């Protein structure tokens, strides 16, 4: 596994992208509800908020720029994307994320959806943002994928990432929310797969929420229509490398469970 500092050499099928308007919108949710989505071998990451054990899920939204597969670097796309994820630990205690699915604002979605059978969906998005240097002033995001709405209206605060509810330090927040590099998910044929990402260390700031809604989380009965986010973190730009295609992770199914 690479660290956030060590950029690996890209493989033929990997995807690179420069991300803009990068937003992590996080909700705290019931532990038992989230646990019901996970396969054996993965456990939810628990935090304590107002004296209660809670789990965390995030919608990670951004604009891809210079988005390309390395076997065709001459074809670069620009499109919106949202990844829906939960924060988990493997049996060995290492941190990872569980992906519910991805929405992508490009016909390129057909490759991961059909060639790799991933739960990716076509999205239609309108967005705008205004930054002062690397500090957010305003950001608007309105998207729809398979009838599920996504809405964000944010204002910048200029506040660097501080101690969020349920965390002990900004470093703890980064370790859980912004820097997991391994993901797991169910393909559309129900096979369990895993893939990794690389990105430079993120330097995020807190945003003020004027409106936030991610209807997919409501359909999964993880959040209510009226629920406010636990936190919203933003960064103007960063680079990502996604290690594709996913590989099977059936070994998780046989992982020993904690008593």
Q: What does this protein structure show overall?
A:
With 259 residues, the protein is mainly beta. It has one domain: Beta Barrel (Acetoacetate decarboxylase-like). The chain is 10% helix and 54% strand. The protein is built from four helices and 13 strands. Strands 1, 2, 3, 4, 5, 6, 7, 8, 9, 10, 11, 12 and 13 form a 13-stranded mixed sheet that branches. It is globular. The two termini are 28 Å apart.
Structural features:
54% strand; 13-stranded mixed beta sheet; Acetoacetate decarboxylase-like; 259 residues; disordered C terminus; globular; mainly beta
Summarize the structure.
The protein is mainly β and 259 residues long. The chain has one domain (15-254): Acetoacetate decarboxylase-like.
Can you lay out the helices and strands and say which pair or pack?
Layout: E1 15-29, H1 31-35, E2 42-44, E3 47-49, E4 52-69, E5 77-90, E6 95-104, H2 110-115, E7 120-132, E8 135-145, E9 148-160, H3 170-178, E10 182-186, E11 192-199, E12 205-214, H4 215-219, E13 231-248
């Amino acid at each position: 596994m690479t660290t956030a500092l060590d950029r690996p050499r890209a493989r033929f099928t990997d995807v690179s992208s420069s991300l803009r308007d990068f937003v992590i919108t996080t909700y705290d949710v019931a532990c038992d509800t989230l646990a019901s989505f996970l396969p054996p071998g993965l456990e939810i990451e628990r935090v304590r908020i107002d004296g209660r054990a809670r789990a965390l899920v995030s919608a990670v939204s951004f604009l891809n720029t210079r988005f390309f597969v390395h076997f065709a670097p001459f074809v670069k796309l620009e499109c919106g994307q949202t990844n829906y994820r939960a924060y988990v630990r493997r049996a060995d205690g290492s941190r990872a994320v569980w992906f519910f699915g991805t929405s992508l604002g490009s016909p390129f979605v057909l490759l991961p959806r059909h060639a790799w059978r991933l739960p990716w969906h076509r999205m239609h998005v309108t967005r705008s943002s205004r930054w002062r240097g690397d500090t957010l002033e305003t950001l608007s995001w309105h998207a729809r994928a398979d009838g599920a709405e996504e809405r964000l209206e944010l204002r910048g605060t200029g506040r660097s990432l501080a101690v969020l509810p349920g965390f002990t330090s900004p470093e703890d927040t980064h370790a859980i929310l912004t820097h997991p590099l391994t993901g797991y998910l169910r393909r559309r044929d129900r096979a369990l797969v895993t893939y990794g990402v690389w990105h430079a260390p993120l330097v995020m700031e807190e945003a003020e929420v004027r409106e936030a809604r991610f209807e997919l989380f409501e359909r999964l009965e993880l959040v209510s229509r009226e629920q406010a986010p636990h936190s919203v973190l933003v960064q103007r730009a960063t680079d990502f490398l996604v290690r594709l295609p996913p590989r099977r992770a059936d070994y998780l199914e046989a992982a020993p469970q904690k008593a």
